[in-house]
Amino acid sequence: MKKVICFLFLSVFSYQIIADEGMLEFKGTSLLSGSEKFEGQEKYFCQYRKGPMGDTLCTTRYSGSESIAGEDVRTVSYTFYDDKLHTIFFLVSPKSVDTIVAALTQKYGKPKLETNFLTNHMGVQFKNEIYNWEREKDKITIKKYAADLNTASITFRTNESLKIYTERSSETMKSKAGDL
After folding, report:
1. What local confidence, expressed as pLDDT, does residue 49 receive?
2. Helix or strand or coil: residue 49?
3. Which residues neighbour 61 within 8 Å (Cβ) at sequence distance 6 or greater?
4. What's the first-to-final CA gap in the chain, in angstroms?
């Protein structure tokens, strides 16, 4: 009898832990939510065209109109496939990365850290840090140096988004190959 009660308790408790790990969200907008929140809002510029990179892309119009972990965000982009949010992409200053990593670590636990080196046109090397929080249905990636040495990136994305991108890219390549 004790084994049955213990099993039931562990089953309910473990279900609660799994159920509590909802999709990633940013200020009340969670991955897999719809695009209706963005439509007609002055704060966002939305583009609609179906392709490998998404069906709808909404970007903040004004630099500095958002923040994450108290740090200014240069821009935030929201990418939708089939009217479901699959990616939230931020550009921030590399100086903000330590603060943002600390806040996300507190919320989601310790990330996996990868390092590599970037070399500028003068031959000077810079250590790049890439932080990854991998979860069952989604992932966060922070790159200290993204496009250049003055820009860091943060990506919240569903695990499904890469699959959708790959399938759509393959379809696009096949259709373009027919134009040869």
Report:
1. 84
2. strand
3. 42, 43, 44, 45
4. 72
